[in-house]
Amino acid sequence: xxxxxxxxxxxxxxxxxxxxxxxxxxxxxxxxxxxxxxxxxxxxxxxxxxxxxxxxxxxxxxxxxxxxxxxxxxxxxxxxxxxxxxxxxxxxxxxxxxxxxxxxxxxxxxxxxxxxxxxxxxxxxxxxxxxxxxxxxxxxxxxxxxxxxxxxxxxxxxxxxxxxxxxxxxxxxxxxxxxxxxxxxxxxxxxxxxxxxxxxxxxxxxxxxxxxxxxxxxxxxxxxxxxxxxxxxxxxxxxx
Length: 240
Fold this sequence. Notes:
Layout: H1 2-28, H2 37-42, E1 58-62, E2 83-88, E3 96-98, E4 109-111, E5 120-125, E6 128-131, E7 137-144, E8 151-156, E9 161-164, E10 175-180, E11 186-190, E12 195-199, E13 208-214, E14 226-234, E15 236-239
Antiparallel strand pairs: 1-14, 2-5, 3-4, 4-14, 5-13, 6-15, 7-10, 7-14, 8-9, 8-13, 9-11, 11-12
């Protein structure tokens, strides 16, 4: 009887450990469970939450305000009070914060379908740079159509702009894409025209001022566009 009781206790303990693992995993995957209610409403988690590899902290998350669709995209659509939005390029005035009543779980997202030219968006923390060297990563939830390939845009503390050669292309539905920053290759970016230029070599990413995205193309309606639901940046904050 004592042995049977021990087996039951071990089984119960194993079940509890499995539940704990699932709960922890839900913080990594917004598809499984969104951020806690208060944090989700603000579009961010608590500063310094350690969610990434090797203790990398969540530097910021932006999930956009749940407001009616509008053109152009402006600072009023930014949910995280620590972030400043800049919209770049000849197509900037056509960028839209979109949402549809159906399906019921349709997110509030940035949409490029009406951009009349190349565009980019970037987000800057009000008081900090971020160190994106080492184990840093960038994650987002997006949905592209047509030939659109969504790429990471960075502004370094030196003022130089970069765009990633790696990208996130067409999918049938929303999905989460993760970019380990150390593995990315870069091109210099003409931020006025939103055009890729010469290879960026091995840039120093220890002080990054702005992070965002572009697909380097004009909008082509629903059949040829980029959609960004949310973006997360994991790295080490550096006071400015």
